Description:
This is ATP synthase subunit delta, chloroplastic. Keywords: ATP synthesis, CF(1), Chloroplast, Hydrogen ion transport, Ion transport, Membrane, Plastid, Thylakoid, Transport. This protein is α+β, with helices and mostly antiparallel strands. Helices cover 62% and strands 14% of the residues.
Amino acid sequence: MINQGLKEKISMPYAEALLELGSNHNLTAEIKQDLSLISATLKNSKKLELFLVNPIIVTSKKKEILSKLFADKVNSLILKFLLVLVERRRINLINTIISKYLILTYKLESIVVAELFTAVELSEHQHKNIANKIKFITKSTNVNLVTNVNPDLIGGFVVKIGSKIIDTSLAGKLKQMAFYLNA
């Protein structure tokens, strides 16, 4: 299995090529939408994901399945890109490539990506307030807030912006207290 650092290093040229392809054809928004569809499809179908990463299955069969599945749903350039990944035996990196592509497009658009982990689902008002606080903290005009529900947090939330983590969760506070009591 490839470690995460190596995956990211291998994925970056593919993401850059995809970004250049989108820029040259004025398809950046469409590519982003198509990649979101592909990512969601793979996330919702573990069987498809396992099928694509299985080295025993021949590439022609993988290409056939991808073509049937996405032919009328994504741009032909994206479909060709997927087929190239299959041909080069890099389809197992598709999620990392998509992630890297999105990071590159967000940098170009000056969008800050923040991951928000909460114990419960937030209301629209709470979501907006946290996004506004992140805009203020990062001095950014645009924030893409990716929300994940994690009941293990008990209460509060955790925000991850790049390598910075803001932990206001009850679980985080309990860990801090345990650390100080054990020290």
